[in-house]
Amino acid sequence: MTLLEDIKSFKEKFKQNAPQEKQELMKRATEELEKSGVAKGLKEGERIPRFQLSDATGRMVSIDEELSKGPMILTFYRGGWCPYCNLELRAYQKELQSINNAGIQLVAISPQTPDASLSTKEKNELAFTVLSDEGNEVANQFNLVFQMPDYLVEVYKESGLDVPAHNGNDNWELPKPATFVVDQSGKIVYAEVHSDYTVRVEPLKVVELAKNI
């Protein structure tokens, strides 16, 4: 199955099983986020910020060093607690051999602590670079961060999701899911940012774009 088919299947199960009130509140939050105009993300033609972040083992990774190896697919995800993020990460893992053979770098970033990132990496059996952007410092530079509304925080808490525990702080801030294809100069040649966290880009499409840089 493709990523989009997996997402469609998961959404159908969620609609069947989740309380209607919960579904309505989550839909409301998505619509309000879209209307707010915040966290629109960097655009095609802009250059990404230069940064260093810790990987899942605690090793510092320089984005300049990664770009020196080839063009990059850079994906921001919310956390290993997010089922849609896990589906996306696993879909990229399926394409990893093709990505590596093309000389493309694949980097995933979330606000999780290194320990939480390691859990995500192990759970999904990921063999690519997973970085921890604690405090959403880099995601802020990419203009991706938003504050979750109080009523959505309550929905998450009632579902047993302690996002701050994953992120090592008291904030209920998240990055929008985002995908960037970046050339070796650091210029963004493709950007996809969505307010709806269930909307993702098919990795095959992203890989083909990266191959054509």
The CATH superfamily bears the name Glutaredoxin
What percent strand?
15-25%
The arrangement of helices and strands along the chain is HHEEHEHHEHEHEHHEEEH
Distance between the termini: 27 Å
Number of discrete domains: 1
The side-by-side strand order for the widest beta sheet comes to 2-1-5-4-3-8-9
Whole-angstrom Rg: 16 Å
Low-pLDDT runs of 5+ residues are none
- Summed over residues and divided by their number, the pLDDT gives a mean of 97
CATH C-level name: Alpha Beta
Helix content: 40-55%
User: How many beta-strand runs?
Assistant: 9
Main β-sheet description = 7 strands, mixed
- Class computed from helices, strands and strand pairing: alpha+beta
CATH architecture: 3-Layer(aba) Sandwich
CATH-defined topology? Glutaredoxin
Q: Give the overall shape, derived from the CA principal axes.
A: globular
Describe the secondary-structure layout.
Blueprint: H1 3-17, H2 20-36, E1 52-55, E2 60-62, H3 63-67, E3 72-76, H4 83-94, H5 96-101, E4 105-110, H6 114-123, E5 129-132, H7 137-141, E6 145-147, H8 150-158, H9 163-167, E7 173-175, E8 178-182, E9 188-193, H10 203-211
Parallel strand pairs: 3-4, 4-5
Antiparallel strand pairs: 1-2, 1-5, 3-8, 6-7, 8-9
